[in-house]
Design goal:
There is one protein chain. The protein is of the alpha/beta class and 356 residues long. The protein is 32% helix and 26% strand. It is built from eleven helices and 19 strands. The strands form four sheets. The protein has an eight-stranded parallel beta sheet with strand order 10-9-8-11-13-17-15-16. It is globular, with a radius of gyration of 22 Å. The mean pLDDT is 95. Bound molecules: nicotinamide-adenine-dinucleotide (NAD).
């Protein structure tokens, strides 16, 4: 155990899970969702600036671990995220994450943060930004299928940004639905627990599917989807992990984040490689049409893209100053003489073994 000389430390602000939760309480969940949504929309508008690549995935039988990098030319960001549907049975999260922002000019990190909670916020904010453009006018009712870790965030973002105040809930595990209802009590949404997905979608303007199952599941059948709805399909986000019957895709107009990634991971992995999709950034910038009729079925095949994490990281960086809600992390060796890395090691004061 060694203590480097204090002058030779370059600290990186680190936001722990505890501090992220404090920040949410300080800002408020709804304002924070709206704030992150604003950053996401802003980055969709400058889409062409970003370095883009499908995320780098390491698959195993039980799940996936992914790296999601991007850069706007002055700031670089990445997220580490996993997806392990079996985890909940073992008392673990399906999705956990952390992320980093760095200065492109120096390559030095400028922020390290937990991103498990932040991913839930950014995924919900993305869904709501998309629904703002695609959902039928005056939409107030959403069916929420899959009531796990992401679900309350989805509901709150749809309420705050799209005016959804009525939610029809279904999960194969009624305990998940009870948990959601308990968490959102008194938060301005009317909730109804429903015992089947078929019934839950009845009368819904927006259908959100947010289930976790490592298989080609059929959470929605073609005959469950009526004309005019907006489907926010976000649970299928990995090869071999989808939620919708293929026939729905052929009836709907399908909107995506970054086609090369969505063709690997999204619902459209079921379709031929040239299956037509519309890129959300083009809808947001007015270069492509979004919803064009009351009868159109719009489908957001959301898999989560690196720019959305980048937007969320930017939002956190811009909110941190003066909050004290971070720790300075000693994670960069930065000797006063940049070439004297060895000398810095020698100058570190050795402490006795066993002394903290
Ligand atoms: P979770 O495990 O906490 O919750 C999933 C819920 O789905 C559970 O309550 C489970 O009982 C329920 N479920 C499973 N199969 C079902 C079915 N056929 N019908 C109804 N309910 C069913 O997971 P989570 O963290 O809420 O994530 C949900 C999904 O969203 C995961 O697949 C995750 O990978 C994905 N996700 C996507 C994005 C994105 O950007 N698109 C971001 C985060 C998570």
């Amino acid at each position: 155990m060694f203590a480097p000389a204090p002058s030779e430390r370059a600290y990186v602000p680190f936001v722990s899970v505890d501090n992220m939760m404090q920040l949410i309480h300080r800002i408020g969940i709804e304002p924070m969702l709206a704030g992150i949504a604003g950053y996401i929309e802003e980055d969709f508008r400058r889409w062409e600036l970003f370095d883009k690549t499908p995320r780098v995935a390491a698959h195993s039988n039980e799940g996936v671990i992914e790296l999601m990098p991007t850069s706007d030319g002055s700031t670089y960001g990445f997220k580490y995220v996993n997806g392990h549907p079996k985890n909940t049975k073992e008392g673990l999260q399906t999705v956990t994450a952390f992320g980093l922002l760095a200065d492109v000019n120096t390559g030095y990190p400028v922020l390290l943060t937990e991103m498990t909670v932040l991913t839930a916020l950014r995924t919900a904010a993305t869904s709501a930004v998309v629904a703002k453009y695609l959902a039928p006018k005056g939409a107030r009712t959403m069916a929420m299928i899959g009531n796990g870790a992401q679900s309350e965030f989805q509901a709150m973002a749809m309420k705050e940004i799209c005016g959804i105040d009525n939610i029809r809930l279904y999960d194969i595990d009624p305990k998940a639905t009870k948990k959601l209802m308990r968490n959102l009590e008194g938060r301005g949404v009317t909730m109804v627990a429903i015992s089947s997905a078929e019934e839950a979608v009845q009368g819904a303007d927006i259908i959100t599917t947010c289930t976790a199952d490592k298989q080609n599941a059929t959470v929605l059948n073609d005959n469950m989807v009526g004309y005019g709805v907006h489907i926010n399909a976000i649970g299928g986000d990995c090869p071999g992990k989808t939620e919708l019957a293929g026939a729905i895709l052929t009836r709907a107009d399908v909107f995506v984040e970054y086609p090369p990634q969505t063709r690997i991971e999204g619902e459209i992995q079921q379709m031929p490689d040239d299956f037509p999709v519309i890129e959300m950034w083009k809808v947001i910038t007015g270069q492509s049409e979004g919803r064009t009729s009351d009868r159109q079925i719009t489908l957001f095949d959301g898999v989560g893209f690196a720019t959305e994490d980048f937007s969320a990281l930017r939002y956190i960086r811009d909110r941190l100053e003066g909050t004290g809600l971070y720790q300075d992390l000693d994670m960069l060796a930065d000797p006063d003489d940049p070439r004297d890395l060895f000398g810095m090691v020698l100058r570190a004061t050795p402490m006795k073994a066993g002394v903290e």
